[in-house]
Amino acid sequence: MSISSAMSSALSGLTVSSRAAEVISSNIANALTEGYARREVQVSVRRVGDAGQGAQVSGVHRDVNGFLMADRRLAGARAADLDLREGFFSRLEGQLGNPQDSASLTGRIATLDAALIAAASRPDNEARLSALADAATGLTAGFRTIADDLQTARSEADSRIAQQVSEVNHALVGIANLNGHIVSFSSGSRDTSALQDQRQQLIDQISTIIPLREVQDSAGRVTLYTGGGAVLLDGRPTELGFAKVGVITPDMTLASGALSGLTLKGRPLRTDATGPLSGGSLGALFAIRDQLAVEAQAGLDAVARDLVDRFQDPALDATRAPGAAGLFTDHGLEFNPVDEVGLSQRLMLNAATVPQSGGALWRLRDGLGSATPGPVGESALLNALHQALAAPRLTLSGGFSPAQRSLPGLAAQLASGVATNRLTAQKDASFSSARAEALRVMELEGGVDTDREMQDLLLIENAYAANAKVIQTMDQMLQLLLGM
Amino acid sequence: MALISLGDMAHSFMLRRQTADLKQSAQQASAEVVSGLSFDPAARQHGDLVPIAAIETSLTRLEGYRAVTNDTATMAGAMQTVLQTIEHQTDDLVPALLNLGLTEGLGTLNRLTTEVRQGLDGVISALNTRLGDRSLFAGIAADQPALANADTILTALDAAISASGAVTIGEIDAAVTTWFADPAGFSSVGYLGGEPLSPLYLSPEDQVQGMLTAAHPALRDTLKGMALVALADRAAGASGAGIRMALARRGGETLLQNRSDRAALAADLGMAEARIEAAATRNQAEKSALELARNGLLVVDPFEAATRMEATQSQLEALYAVTARLSRLNLVDFLR
User: Which of A347, A462, B159, B293 has CA 20 to 30 A from A2's CA?
Assistant: First the structure.
């Protein structure tokens, strides 16, 4: 029966061709789909008895390079991590401002400096005193704006943590479901490529949040570990726990218990740089909330404290009663060094010098505690205030190296520290994002190439035509036989 | 790497990324060309903003000192003018006063005392000069006139003389001198101003100490000399023509002696003016030097920036050309 077996071979060729065309059309349709892995029809010889007769589709292969994908995921997580850190430092640098800009922190201090000099020259001149009060108020406003923005950055980090945690939790549930489907489908030898694509997309989605390692067992089920070794998905999904806080103030920290940490299956999880979830955007957000912004706030508070201390010196203004607030106050009161945290947000010009708050400008000239205006030409106090601003003074807090600095010098030191951090983070971030992008390009290179698919399609077209021709010929041969 | 296929997305991803990169550098270069300043000064200083901040602080501070040198120079100039006015008021009187009793008689005395009495008003009003609502010679009490009017001073002198019971020319002179030196006399009745001004800082290093007040001994002696002459017309000194004559002459002598003191005062003030001028010049020079230094830190070479912008632009154009070419290059277009 060789003619009929030839017919059957040709028929199997037609089937393989149309199956291959189907796969190619799916590839081309998904040429621009992110996370779609290119499929390839695996063709083998069909065996009938001892001899090979015809071809058959033995399976559809998903073309994925697992190592490349794992590398790309880790690089993506690291890039997301460093990108967020760089963003934070850039934002802080923008708040501190360019030194050339008079609205920057150093610019505002310089304005106060110049206003003191000008006022000391004409202490009788109301406009000069008023300019001095404005410069001082502007400086307090500058401190407050920066500190407020730092706390806003912390609040934003907090809400984004909550959002990313819920994203991870949802994705883990989805991945666990898909795991189940894939196992049951593949045991029924059905094509699970589409399910695997979906699962890969879900894993990709959370792999920038937490660096993930994926292990796939023989049944096609994946287990997910974090880079730090915590198990996120093993059969059943685990749940990350986090509680968002509304408004964050400088005194609220993770250590004080006012801010939420992370829990995994109800057990607390470390969130610092060496914690099991660090290395992705989640780790960076925790770092911003609990470390970077807190340190920046401490530096800013140290500068604010230096400012307050300089003008709170008892030798400066004899009219100020002991225990009364200095020129710059901690929300109207004398500054106490134990209250340094958050000082920059509470910094105020002494109300005794602010006409709008019932004070008087002449107290800038005659002393905070003086009851009546003194001689209008007296500039001794204003001169002393200016000297207090510029005098070298030991920096007491804020992580600055202990050295004698003037107030403008200390503020410049703070700005330099932030700029250096930004540049380092920028360099790291651009390096890691270049690496992540290079890996991504490599991964995409293995994706759908329409030219290649079209070439394959041409071959298939030929093969289909040839098989059809074989069938036609066999048909003619049979006709010939039947017609005899 | 043996590639038999190259994913479509790899191409577009790479092109997209390169376009973004190039656009960013084009933006940076064009911003630098337009502003002439570095796009990222912090990066240029390797994160060390201390020098720029120090320069900016110094520049702003010099702006403050410019106000001081302007104020102080104006003030010293106005004071110098006042001293010249006083010089004019007294100069012509001295020879005439000294000639009294020698070549001149009572008629001249009457004329001179009236003239001196008016001159005293003039001197006092000159010392009460206000400059921009600031009383020049009143020290720290800059909102007050420096001196009481002539009548108040002369009345107080009348009372002091009659209280001391002075009758001879020597006694009257002594009583007047005592009154001018007495803290309860001139300093509380005649001089209405305050202590001299605190040192004025012209720059972190330069200062002008204790500007002149109307209570300065040299100016006080001028007032005393004129007061002696003026007293010749008043009850206390009017006991006889001889005494009147003698008083007026004594006043003339006092004014004559006082002349050199006032000259020294004017010279001191001139020195202060020179110091102020020198400080202003130094500040200006420092400002220019700092601006140069700042430019060194911030300014980009316009030629270099323009070249970079040009290069980026042509690179971008090439990239667009490549993108267009590559997108046309696909098999589908040829399968007809």
Answer: A462
